[in-house]
Design brief:
Layout lengths: L2 H34 L8 H14 L8 H16 L4 H5 L4 E7 L4 E5 L2 E4 L7 H14 L10 E5 L5 E5 L9 E5 L8 H6 L5 H13 L3 E5 L5 H9 L8 E5 L12 E5 L13 H8 L6 E4 L6 H9 L7 E5 L3 H15 L4 H11 L2 E7 L5 E13 L2 E15 L5 E7 L7 H5 L6
Parallel strand pairs: 7-11, 7-12, 8-9, 8-10, 10-11
Antiparallel strand pairs: 1-2, 1-6, 2-3, 4-5, 5-6, 12-13, 13-14, 14-15
Length: 426
């Protein structure tokens, strides 16, 4: 081993020892503070910080640390006591779009479409479980071994999915999908080449004219973000009702807005409230438009009922690999719930959905509108799709980005809603 290698090895050992001592000091301080705190009293954040400061001043071992290290320990203890422990600093990084916790020792984050493993980890599985209970409890949800899967949300609207043992074999699993504090607009999507200006303008007209629009795409393709952007075109004077499993939509400048989310059954006797229940309730609330966050199962029946009962301009989203696949999935979801002829299901879908927008995340990790199709009735008992726009790939640039354009393929055929709303017919 060379001299430089020995020095590097010694520095590494020294740093590991220092980190270990630092963690021991932090744990000892936190335990002392917890014993000192009167848990029957409600502490403010300021009082907790003052209490931490007083213990830091008393602790002999803290004197060997720098001012920066002391401040960092103070912040970490505060986050453990009042926030979400090591998760807090990750959540405060606005460049992170997704957080994946695979047990207490493994954390991954997504930045700019790419995954990275962080050096952060929870002190123990018990500590991770405490953070999970804090998250789900804040939005009136419950998760435990008897009910090990739950969807929740953070105060900033981020979507949280939790899976516990015995379902999750390698410890508690938490996946957090983050949304920007300021919703992404259609103008930004045009700048990022996610959609062409021409297509965006046509969609704006269709939204204002009351066309029912369904958005499909794979996981992480940007369905909720796109739905938010489309909702910005809804005329201000309309009454909008949003229905979601976990409230994520960030509709802007809608004064007459009603937001509803589902509720799980719990041990206190509260019955489950499903998306189906909320859709049925919304029909009695005098909505102009109903927006269903995502359709996954039997609620497809009630969503199509809402689309077919005069609530023009309603919208929803669903998971699929293509526009055609989305229609097949909707048919399957409805047939699993109702014993009616397939032809009747297809007729209902063709009559209820006017336009389907399909999104995708292509190989350079960018999110694009891949296809916009119009549902053009039935032909030989099959739903006929009329393509309005399709993404055409043109190659790869020097930065490795996929080049391509959303090209116009056809003109809108069903223009009666445009005429009724007073828009010029193309």
């Amino acid at each position: 081993m060379t001299v430089s290698e020995k020095e590097t090895n010694q520095k590494s050992i020294y740093q590991e020892e220092k980190n270990r001592n630092r963690e021991e000091i932090k744990k000892k301080l936190r335990d002392r503070i917890l014993r000192k705190m009167d848990h029957s009293k409600e502490f403010t954040d300021t009082e907790v910080k003052e209490l931490i400061d007083s213990f830091i001043l008393q602790e002999e071992e803290m004197r060997i640390l720098t001012v920066t290290e002391r401040q960092q320990i103070k912040q970490e203890i505060f986050c453990t006591l009042r926030r979400l422990d090591v998760l807090q600093s990750i959540l405060e990084d606005s460049s992170i779009t997704e957080i994946m916790i695979n047990g207490p020792d493994t954390l991954f984050v997504e930045k700019s479409g790419r995954l990275f493993k962080t050096g952060e980890k929870f002190e123990s599985e018990e500590k991770l479980l405490q953070v999970i209970q804090k998250i789900v409890g804040s939005c009136n949800r419950a998760v435990n071994e008897a009910s090990p899967i739950v969807d929740a949300r953070l105060p900033d609207g981020s979507r949280v999915n939790v899976v516990l043992k015995p379902v999750a074999i390698n410890g508690p699993i938490v996946t957090i999908r983050r949304f920007p504090q300021k919703p992404i607009t259609m103008e930004q999507m045009i700048q990022w080449n996610s959609i062409s200006k021409e297509a965006a303008q046509e969609l704006e007209t269709l939204v204002k004219a009351g066309y029912n629009i369904f958005i499909s795409g794979g996981t992480g393709s940007g369905k909720t973000t796109f739905l938010n952007a489309l909702s910005g075109f809804i005329p201000v004077g309309e009454r909008i009702i949003t229905i979601e499993d976990s409230a994520e939509l960030q509709l802007q400048e809608v004064p007459n807005l009603v937001r509803m989310e589902t509720r799980n059954a719990n041990v206190e006797g509260c019955r489950e409230v499903t998306i189906r229940d909320l859709i049925k309730a919304s029909l009695r609330m005098r909505p102009d438009r109903i927006i269903v966050g995502e359709v996954r199962g039997s609620e497809a029946v009630d969503m199509m009922t809402a689309f077919n009962t005069g609530h023009d301009g309603s919208m929803s989203t669903g998971h699929a690999n293509s526009a055609a696949d989305m229609l097949n999935r909707l048919q399957t979801m409805i047939l699993m719930e109702m014993e009616i002829p397939l032809a009747a299901v297809k007729q209902q879908i063709a009559a209820g959905i006017d336009v389907l927008v399909h999104l995708g995340r292509i190989r350079d990790k960018s999110r694009r509108v891949l296809e916009i199709v119009e549902l053009d009735g039935l032909e030989k008992e099959e739903i006929r799709l009329h393509t309005l726009y399709r993404f055409e790939e043109e190659g790869i640039n020097r930065e490795g980005r996929v080049e391509g354009t959303l090209q116009k393929k056809g003109m809108l055929k069903h223009v009666y809603k445009l005429k009724a709303a007073g828009f010029p017919v193309p």
